[in-house]
Write a structure and sequence with these properties.
Layout lengths: L2 H16 L15 E7 L11 H16 L8 E7 L4 H13 L4 E3 L6 H10 L3 E3 L6 H5 L3 E2 L4 H15 L4 E7 L2 H4 L1 H8 L6 E8 L7 H7 L5 E5 L2 H14 L4 E5 L5 H7 L7 E4 L9 H13 L7 H19 L7 H8 L31 E8 L2 E4 L5 E2 L4
Parallel strand pairs: 1-2, 1-3, 3-4, 4-5, 6-7, 6-8, 8-9, 9-10
Antiparallel strand pairs: 10-11, 11-12, 11-13
């Protein structure tokens, strides 16, 4: 191993060592190191929906960057903060990010964007590549989501079903405030078509029997749109398959990750996905690098849209800073750079990123308003085409 490679691996190790610290203010850092932070529900005892894989994607991308010499010659270190699926903890994490003078937060995966972004905004800290869920995630001047999120995936899935000939789409979603928004998003997706949005069935996470919910969703509609997390969606799809339902079914990509397709077998066959990032199984240059990074630095971690999103956030940050030849990694300067991107090539996991456009409310920060469509065929996820499809009608 040559000296530069040894140095890169050493810095990668430092980054990984710091990622796990709740507060690394006393950690010895290279004075030229670029500090980033990840905020998210690494653990979640309340709803049993932790997302540690989002952090793993961030870590893998940083490790590779450091192995290659960092960004513009400066190493990257990562601070992490577990919000534990709690709004108060999320706010504490945001305050830590400002206090630590991080260059930016990357890949945040939290249900509490409202709490986080209000604080980051005041501290001039950019949130790059967070999972957009709350209204603040789509509207805060500090917000730079790199995907259309649930709103885009659900709107896109509805538009896909409409294009396939559906006249009435019934919805099934997790029984939560976010799940209840699916009707609004689906309605936006079919705007201007002759497709109607039918009943919305909310399914509790702890529901012991899904048969009654499947019966509701299959009644009176010729297509079904599912907006759930993967474990709940798996139970729903199994029950749907057993019922013999013949309706076309589309869902958000997070509901049917690659490993679940294999586990479900016939219950997954023919299902359509609306994907905010190019699906892992469909290849591409970015996915090839993502898989290589995960295999080398985070082997064994679940590969899905969450780990992809974390990896993409770091990749986008690195490409933006390299293109603008940034040497001043103060949060205010990084925020200014992120506000002035014009057609940034982030790879083929998403379309080129432009952040200078003035978008209408309520999704002012929905810079990426496109999804890809795919279908499970013979146990494998395949793209319907290579195009990016608009979701919300501006």
């Amino acid at each position: 191993m040559n000296f530069s490679r040894k140095l890169g691996v050493a810095m990668a190790g430092l980054a990984l060592a710091l990622s796990g610290c709740g507060d690394a203010s006393d950690a010895p850092l290279d004075e030229n190191a670029i500090k980033l932070m990840f905020i998210g529900q690494i653990t979640d005892t309340a709803n049993t929906t932790p997302r540690p894989e989002a952090l793993a994607g961030v870590r893998a991308a940083i490790a590779r960057l450091n192995a290659e010499g960092g960004i513009n010659g400066q190493p990257v270190v990562l601070l992490t903060c577990d919000d534990k699926a709690d709004a108060n903890e999320a706010a504490k994490c945001a305050r830590q990010a400002v206090r630590e003078n991080v260059a930016a937060t990357v890949g945040n995966n939290s249900n509490f964007g409202e709490a986080i972004l209000a604080i980051l905004e005041r501290g001039n800290v950019a949130s790059i590549g967070h999972l957009p869920i709350t209204q603040a995630d789509f509207s805060s001047p500090a917000a730079f989501p790199l995907q259309a999120g649930s709103v885009g995936m659900i709107a896109g899935a509805a538009r896909l079903l409409s294009d396939l000939g559906a006249k009435r789409i019934n919805l099934a979603a997790v029984d939560s405030p976010a799940g209840s928004l699916n009707e609004r998003f689906a309605t936006a997706g079919v705007k201007g078509t002759d497709t109607a949005i039918g009943n919305l069935t909310l399914v509790p996470l702890d529901a012991p029997d899904y048969a009654v919910y499947v019966a509701q969703v299959t009644s009176g509609g010729d297509a079904i749109l599912i907006g759930m997390n993967f474990d709940q969606a798996a139970r729903f799809l199994r029950e749907l398959h057993q019922s013999g339902a013949q309706q076309a079914v589309a869902m958000n990509e997070g509901a049917l990750p690659p490993d679940m397709i294999e586990q479900l077998g016939p219950a997954a066959e023919g299902r359509y996905l609306s994907a905010p990032l190019r699906p892992i199984a469909t290849g591409g240059e970015s996915n090839t690098q993502f898989l290589a990074d995960m295999a080398e630095y985070e082997d064994g971690v679940r590969l899905n849209v969450f780990s992809q999103g974390g990896w993409l956030a770091v990749e986008t940050f690195a490409r933006a800073m390299a293109e603008h030849q940034v040497t001043d990694f103060s949060s205010a300067n990084v925020l200014g750079v992120m506000q002035n991107l014009d057609g940034l090539d982030t790879g083929d996991m998403i379309p080129p990123l432009t952040t200078t456009q003035d978008l209408p409310a309520p999704y002012q920060r929905l810079f990426i308003n496109q999804v890809m469509f795919a279908q499970v065929r013979n146990g494998t996820l395949e793209l319907l085409d290579e195009d990016w499809h608009d979701t919300l009608i501006r």
